């Protein structure tokens, strides 16, 4: 008889199953703040952008000075790779530097690591006044990146990027103005040389102490040693400053002895042409600046200093300089790296070597992209040999050379179609999506038809794209469901509504459940609920086709001229003036861009600055209130300058995302 049946016969209670007590789950957010700091401090900084998306509290922790004080106290600091890009395109030309930081990817479906953009609240520190890759000198010291000098004009200004918080601030100015100076870090101090008019000046070389935030002079090397040329280069090894120029003069400065020596006296035995090549590209290698579509480098030598060892990329292999043997030697063990032609950038990342290179032309031909690859190599000295181990390599940043029509849905910005820069007449079906929460681009489902200069509009959370093909074609318009991530064709407008076979779209907007299209000779509206087309009266096209416009809370607005804004009354079928807008600058219509800003209207425009030759971008935010069917009133909440840009820049798009 079983135990259970025996207990039942005897009237005893059956034995109870032992219950295991489960510990309640504890959220990290419920812990004391100091404990949260200690936990987050032990997480790699590469995950901080992802952590900041979890909650406002974690975002606050990640941005707090206490976190970095805790990391420093626990000796948990780490090296972080920063990348500075300039995009040279013709047209347009964008000379401004764009900064990125390497982080771990939240969704690891493609790569584990990627560069994300970092921004600055004060763009004056980000702006570059020149158009070449050597406008300024950039040096990393501790958790700061220092940017010094200028190009046209020369400058004594110094800007500092605090990499803990990705914010810029000013540092004490140099003693003299410099144009394209050389700069290097030696024993924690920044040495800046050249780039000034007076080569005999006692400040031709000066040194900055980040601890005391002061500049000091360095003895002028004199005509016999002093390198010359428009662009000097330098690096620091074993506590000494090595300085190169284009006149075959190379000096070494010993800060301990406070004196200069010609390099040849130290018996380095380096080939002069190699030294020249090294000097010409040192800037790009040290500060990781990569010209995505600029003039090819004049030489093929790229290098960096890691642990007082000079490394070089030359003739498809990595080399290092053995000071004892006075010779270049091959870096072993890096055969696993993929082959790449042309230039690369090398940088010291916490004692390891980061190598960055670019690959052009990936994609389907219609959506050509330019990819930046990164490899991380661990280094080990074995007697007279240097060995490397490739720890990882992958695509870390992709840029697209096309721009279609941009629309926003929630926290995403969609780039619909477009034209590659070098394929001006070829349409595209590509869709790119910018997740504004993490500032990362991904590829979306392609459209069913390829389109050249398409128009797009959002209605009820769906994206309608049209144009760039025969309007009688079944592919003239299609709709994208952002929830299901699928495209579906929309019926084409009937022949009697089309003034001509090929309709050139001028404007497109979604209001009252209809997609309104102003095209060449035709004014159409597609009723999304009934799935049919209808003609629209001429009164709506008056003015709308020639001015900047936006849709806010189901109402179309356009900026007419000199501070006047109009809105379209769909019931009265007429344009009416927006009332009560006092304080709006009277600006020409061709400089204005309107955008829906969370139910308010953002008005952006640019204005030249005579003293500098640059432009200031202005922004005005207007609150909107409907008083009755015939009146909408606006109130200017604020108006101010928000960005300083070179004169060549223009406003391309303005959109608002919900985060």
UniProtKB/TrEMBL annotation:
Ranges of residues in domain F-box: 25-71
Protein name, entry field: F-box domain-containing protein
SUPFAM superfamilies recorded: F-box domain, Kelch motif
Region (Disordered): 1-23
InterPro entries per UniProt: F-box-like_dom_sf (IPR036047), F-box/kelch-repeat_ARATH (IPR050354), F-box_dom (IPR001810), Kelch-typ_b-propeller (IPR015915), Kelch_1 (IPR006652), Kelch_FKB95 (IPR057499)
CDD domains, per the entry: F-box_AtAFR-like (cd22152)
Organism in which the protein naturally occurs: Brassica cretica
SMART domains reported in the protein's UniProt record: FBOX, Kelch
């Amino acid at each position: 008889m079983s135990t259970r049946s025996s207990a039942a016969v005897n009237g005893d209670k059956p034995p109870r199953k032992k219950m295991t007590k489960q510990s309640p789950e504890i959220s990290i957010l419920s812990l004391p703040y100091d404990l949260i700091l200690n936990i987050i401090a032990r997480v790699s900084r590469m995950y901080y952008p992802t952590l900041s998306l979890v909650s406002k509290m974690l975002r606050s922790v990640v941005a707090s000075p206490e976190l970095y004080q805790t990391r420093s106290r626990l000796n948990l600091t780490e090296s972080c790779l920063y990348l500075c890009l300039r995009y040279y395109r013709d047209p347009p030309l964008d000379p401004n530097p764009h900064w990125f930081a390497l982080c771990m990817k939240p969704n690891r479906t493609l790569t584990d690591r990627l560069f994300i953009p970092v921004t600055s609240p004060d763009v004056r520190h980000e702006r570059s006044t020149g158009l070449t890759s050597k406008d300024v000198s950039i040096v990393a010291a501790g958790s700061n990146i220092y940017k010094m000098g200028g190009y046209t004009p020369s400058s004594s200004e110094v800007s500092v990027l605090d990499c803990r918080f990705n914010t810029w601030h000013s540092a004490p100015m140099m003693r003299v103005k410099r144009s394209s100076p050389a700069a290097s870090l030696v024993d924690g101090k920044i040495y800046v040389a050249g780039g000034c008019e007076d080569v005999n000046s006692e400040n031709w070389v000066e040194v900055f102490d980040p601890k005391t935030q002061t500049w000091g002079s360095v003895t002028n090397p004199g005509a016999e040693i002093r390198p010359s040329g428009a662009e000097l280069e330098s690096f620091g090894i074993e506590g000494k400053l090595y300085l190169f120029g284009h006149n075959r003069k190379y000096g070494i400065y010993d800060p301990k002895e406070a004196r200069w020596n010609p390099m040849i006296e130290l018996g380095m035995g380096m080939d002069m042409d190699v030294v020249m090549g090294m000097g010409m590209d040192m800037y790009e290698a040290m500060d990781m600046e990569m010209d995505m579509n600029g003039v090819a480098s004049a030489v093929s030598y790229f290098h960096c200093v890691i642990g007082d060892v000079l490394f070089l990329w030359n003739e498809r292999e990595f080399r290092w300089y053995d000071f004892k043997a006075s010779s270049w030697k091959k870096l072993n063990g890096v055969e696993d790296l993929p082959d790449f032609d042309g230039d690369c950038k090398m940088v010291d990342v916490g004692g390891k070597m980061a190598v960055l290179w670019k690959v052009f032309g990936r994609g389907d031909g219609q959506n050509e992209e330019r990819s930046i690859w990164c490899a991380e190599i661990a280094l080990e000295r074995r007697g007279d040999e240097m060995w490397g181990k490739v720890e990882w390599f992958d695509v870390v940043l992709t840029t697209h050379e096309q721009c279609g029509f941009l629309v926003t849905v929630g926290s995403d910005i969609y780039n619909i179609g477009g034209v590659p820069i070098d394929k001006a007449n070829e349409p595209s079906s590509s869709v790119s999506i910018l997740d504004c929460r993490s500032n990362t681009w991904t590829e979306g489902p392609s459209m069913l038809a390829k389109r050249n200069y398409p128009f797009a509009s959002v209605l009820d959370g769906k994206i309608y794209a049209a144009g760039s093909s025969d309007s009688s074609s079944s592919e003239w318009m299609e709709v994208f469901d952002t929830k299901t991530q699928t495209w579906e064709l929309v019926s084409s407008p009937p022949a009697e509504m089309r003034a001509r076979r090929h309709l050139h779209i001028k404007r497109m907007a979604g209001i009252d459940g209809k997609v309104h299209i102003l095209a060449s000779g035709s004014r159409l509206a597609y009723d999304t609920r009934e799935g049919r087309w209808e003609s629209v009266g001429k009164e709506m096209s008056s003015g709308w086709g020639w001015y900047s416009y936006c849709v806010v809370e189901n109402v179309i607005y356009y900026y007419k001229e000199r501070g006047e804004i109009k809105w379209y009354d769909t019931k009265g079928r007429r344009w009416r003036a927006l009332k009560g807008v006092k304080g709006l600058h009277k600006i020409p219509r061709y400089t204005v861009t309107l955008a829906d800003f969370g139910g308010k209207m953002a008005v952006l425009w640019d204005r030249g600055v005579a003293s500098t030759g640059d432009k200031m971008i202005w922004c005005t935010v207007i609150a909107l209130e409907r008083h009755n069917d015939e009146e909408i009133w606006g109130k200017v909440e604020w108006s101010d300058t928000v960005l300083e840009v070179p004169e060549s820049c223009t406003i391309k798009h303005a959109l608002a995302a919900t985060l």
